[in-house]
TrEMBL record, chains A, B:
<keyword id="KW-0238">DNA-binding</keyword>
<dbReference type="InterPro" id="IPR022659">
    <property type="entry name" value="Pr_cel_nuc_antig_CS"/>
</dbReference>
<comment type="similarity">
    <text>Belongs to the PCNA family.</text>
</comment>
<protein>
    <recommendedName>
        <fullName>DNA sliding clamp PCNA</fullName>
    </recommendedName>
</protein>
<keyword id="KW-0235">DNA replication</keyword>
<dbReference type="Pfam" id="PF02747">
    <property type="entry name" value="PCNA_C"/>
</dbReference>
<dbReference type="Pfam" id="PF00705">
    <property type="entry name" value="PCNA_N"/>
</dbReference>
<keyword id="KW-0539">Nucleus</keyword>
<dbReference type="InterPro" id="IPR022649">
    <property type="entry name" value="Pr_cel_nuc_antig_C"/>
</dbReference>
<comment type="function">
    <text>This protein is an auxiliary protein of DNA polymerase delta and is involved in the control of eukaryotic DNA replication by increasing the polymerase's processivity during elongation of the leading strand.</text>
</comment>
<dbReference type="InterPro" id="IPR000730">
    <property type="entry name" value="Pr_cel_nuc_antig"/>
</dbReference>
<dbReference type="InterPro" id="IPR046938">
    <property type="entry name" value="DNA_clamp_sf"/>
</dbReference>
<dbReference type="InterPro" id="IPR022648">
    <property type="entry name" value="Pr_cel_nuc_antig_N"/>
</dbReference>
<feature type="domain" description="Proliferating cell nuclear antigen PCNA C-terminal">
    <location>
        <begin position="127"/>
        <end position="254"/>
    </location>
</feature>
<feature type="domain" description="Proliferating cell nuclear antigen PCNA N-terminal">
    <location>
        <begin position="1"/>
        <end position="123"/>
    </location>
</feature>
DNA sequence: CCCGAGTGGT
DNA sequence: ACCACTCGGG
């Protein structure tokens, strides 16, 4: 039996909103340590890997491993039925047909319950190797989101060029080109505002803005995004959950014609 | 001759917006006491009853009873031509072909006038009996609206079950079910937030969510909705106008198959 | 009274 | 999935 209670419904709402535009159906794998999801988007280009750690719940109990095959669109509708600050509890039996979502107002004068029918979804559970990356960037997630949104107007690809002392995002399109250059710096007062670059080798990689546009839907999950890059290797875009866990997106770079 | 002046055009705008999705054409019956409207929606299931009391106007005069047959869609377009905080005056002759809508900026630097052609609309004026109801619920109108919006995602019907110490709203659909349970309580500081139940007999009634969806368009008119229920009797959903008057919707419950 | 967020419609 | 409108907050 699974019983997981969030102190704020908004956390689960943000998580689901962060992935539901990439992935329509996915399995929630519940274990004693928390809930994980792994899924690829419809075009099989973007890999989503979520861990909601046990510590992200105010109460959590999962005696035996349980898989919940969920239609994220329906689930998202249910989650919107709560208020952000409500308690949210997920309940499921050991071999469930349904998952129950319960909202409780903190004044306890209102309780709403929604039952969602589960689906059988087959998915290979992908083993993701810990890679060595040439470059790791930490930056404010909102700033990254704005760059992606802005440059999406110009073309379909975004190139990220990292050198020892700068990160450059550029996009070239029909009607013009655009670029944003960031210098690493540390804001002592607001560390979240810092831009940090750890680099063992310069990189120059190009990504599809369509997928980056999906990735930045997760901006609300964390003030900081970590981007790990290496030549000819899927890039890792990571949002850490304050409460414990992460949402990671793996996206292969576009290859140059002369490769 | 009718001359009715609203201190804020927004009041009339809210009123018209509250009913124009239920009713396309209706008679505005103007008497010395104010303006009333009674109409049924196209499917003749939902009855709308409006009273804009004389006190809701900053100036009001109506020597003889006048009937204004109005196309609400056109009227709504006219009303949107003013600013919310403008004065709005309705003018009509004793046997009018037109009604004039006049907006005045409060600084008196702008006056706009719109004339709307009237229509001949036949409508039985329905005598609505004062019913005895088994249950009266008072609750925040916004909360009722959210429940209707949320449960509308699940199915086409909403069941309201009232007992001595709870009000339960439930809906069952293909992909899942949902329910919201409210406990009556009184908020001393914000009485509008209270949920009150006066019950002489428990009720269990089912309504079409389509119509409830129309009813909650009136949410802006009042912070509180009063719902009066009795078995096999049209339910009354009432929004009181702060300035004097009310907007009431009468909706027959769906009947069980075994009735 | 303006702005941002949430919601409903195309 | 995107855009426009409406509503609530500053």
């Amino acid at each position: 039996m699974l019983e997981g209670k969030f102190d704020e419904a908004s956390l689960l709402k943000k998580i689901v909103d962060s992935i539901k535009d990439s992935v329509k159906l996915c399995n929630f794998n519940c274990t004693e340590h928390g809930i994980t999801v792994q899924a690829v988007d419809d075009s099989r280009v973007l890999l989503v890997s979520l861990l909601v750690g046990q510590s992200a719940f105010s109460e959590y109990r999962c005696d035996r491993d349980i898989t919940l095959g969920i239609d994220l669109e329906s689930f998202s509708k249910i989650i919107k039925c709560g208020n952000n600050e409500d308690y949210l509890t997920l309940l499921a039996e050991d071999s469930p047909d349904n998952v129950m979502t319960i909202f409780e107002d903190k004044k306890k004068e209102r309780v709403s319950e929604y039952s969602l029918k589960l689906m059988d979804i087959d998915s290979e559970f992908l083993k993701i190797d810990d890679m060595d990356y040439d470059t790791v960037i930490n930056m404010p997630s909102a700033e990254f989101a704005k760059i992606v949104r802005d440059l999406k107007n110009l073309s379909e690809s975004l190139t990220i060029i990292v050198t020892k002392d700068s990160v450059k995002f550029t996009s070239e399109g029909e009607s013009g080109t655009g670029s944003v250059v960031l210098k690493p710096f540390t804001d002592m007062d607001k560390p979240e505002e810092s831009v940090k670059v750890a680099l063992s080798m310069p990189v120059n990689l190009t990504f599809g803005l369509k997928y980056l546009g999906d990735i930045i839907k997760a901006t609300g999950l964390s003030g900081v995004i970590t981007i790990k890059l290496a030549d000819k290797t899927p890039a890792l875009f990571e949002y850490k959950l304050d409460a414990g866990g992460y949402l990671r997106f793996y996206l292969a770079p576009k290859f140059d014609e002369d490769d």
